Amino acid sequence: MTDARAPRAPYGLDLLGPFRLRDAAGTEVPIPQAHHRIVLAALALAGDATVTTEALLAALWDEDPPRSARKTLQGYVARLRRLLGAATIETRPGGYALPPLLWTADVHTARALLDDARGGTQERLRRRAAARDLFRGEPLLDVPSPVLDRLRGEALRDVAARAVEEWAALLVATDPAAAVAPLRQECAVHPHRESLWALLVVALAGSGRRTEALECYRLTRRRLGEDLGVEPGPALRRAQAAALAADGPEPEATAPATADPARVLAGTLERKRSGGAAVALTGGPGAGKTRTARLALPRALFVSVRPAAPGIPGDEAPDRIAHAVLTAWGLGAREADPRAEVLHRWAERPSALGLDDVTRPASYNWLLPVPPGCALVVCTTLPRPGGAGLTAHALPPWSPGRLGALVARARGEGPRPSAVHVREAAALVGGMPAAAYALAARLVADPGLTLAELATELRDPRRRLDALSGQEPDVRGHLDRAYQRLDGPAARALRLLSQLEAGSFPDTVAVAALHLPPAEVRAQLRELHWAGLLESRGTARARRHRIPPLPQCLGREISEYTDPPAMREAAVSRALRAWAAPGARAAAPAHHGPPDATTFSTRYRRQSAAAALIQQEVTP
Questions:
Q1: DSSP letters of 75-98?
Q2: What H or E segment, with its residue span, contains residue 601?
Q3: pLDDT the model gives residue 478
Q4: CA-to-CA distance for 26 and 212, rounded, in angstroms?
Q5: Whole-prediction pTM value?
Q6: What is the 3-state secondary structure (H, E, C) of 135-194?
Q7: DSSP string of 233-283?
């Protein structure tokens, strides 16, 4: 039994997102060296159990430790003890451990909250919500240890999934209408997690929105079939059956499928501002992040952290951003540390601040936690940004219904566009909001142009970006800015992977196409994912990637005048061989474009035909 008089643990370690070490006062203790973070993470994950020296050596160097590995490990432990206190790391027979009275870790706190079944529904809902909020991003994000990620990372991701699903299930049971909006956000982040979609269908049906519930099931079934080649599982089928059996008319007030993102953001900031509000708007290029943020905070000061030159992430250094904020406030840096001066001035005169074009957590982490009375909005392509008190709001792609409503408004009193052409146009632009506005602008500028004719232009991937050019917003500009920020290897990866006619592809195919070691390819895919130019889904062992339609068009366009034809064709050939290899997990690539592909180049038609032959060979 725990002694009630036991002192509060002086150190708290956060591993469910970016690595963070805090002392008893809540002040962050920087641990700049990666090897020190690995040692602390390995010890914290074990709780109060002993971690053997061999296990720590494997976490630090995998199968290739240096000759002096044991002495080096002892040096790491000694330096950590000098920094944190001699008693903070115990030496035990065969290894080391963290004394539980001196340490807490969010990993064990989350598990304890989830395992606690005491109390009524509301109390359990509160605990599940608290467990869910502990996950601030990808677990072990700043702990570069493949061994720890292999042994512990997937288990931590499973705990995150459990926290979200148990919280959502309790909310659906108590207030299905209130569960709809947060479930939509979670489904956008985890588009292949059937259990979340099943809960969303149940929540929609339970709040009287049966038609939306059935449409949600239909779209989810199609996505699972197109992306993974599977049919819905038992949970989704039960949710559909419940929606079909639901009685009663649909209330007129629930007709809009989604709330206005700017209004939702403004409400979130208003509720949290007294204690300091921080929200990250996430989405790919052209997702409408900046527009939504400016509508929600019309008086906020917005600072772009876009690099001055391509491929130089160092331009997003916090000091440069701090100087830009002080300059925008009409102030000059007086102190040696401009970040400290920004935080001091901000606390003195509470206001709203926005950071635009963010692609690295370092750009905003120094502003967290936000001072009371202040608000921070971060517009970022990072799929899962994390930070102290930061709430992430994903801006999902537009549905065909939303695109159709915009087109109908653009046409005014004219004939309503065909639902077939609306769905086709939405698929061809990948639901990108900027592209939707560009389409509407073209229809307004040319009253004689029909959506059917515009969809015909969009079918040819070589003309698709041209069909959206010359309008506001600038779709090609959004994508090109994201491309220009890539380093050389990641830019090459986008160009070559854009040649693949596939709905999605696994790591093995990407490694074959790029003809590089797997570790380098994973780093490049991660860079594309962070830039919003690649969608990555699934587990570490069965991860699949997809380049959205318009980034793929840009990649092909740039590749045409950057890469020799032989390089592009070799990448496609290697990818096709990887798809056809015996024992390959991935299904052969299939063309997922519109039915009329006559405008595709001969090379792409030849590639699709080869893929079809391979599918015949590998399909049992």
A1: HHHHHHHHHH-GGGSEEETTEEE-
A2: none
A3: 86
A4: 45
A5: 0.54
A6: CCCCCCCCCCCHHHHHHHHHHHHHHHHHHHHHHHHHHHHHCHHHHHHHHHHHHHHCCCCH
A7: -HHHHHHHHHHHH--SPPPGGG-SSS--HHHHHHHHHHHHGGG-EEEEEE-
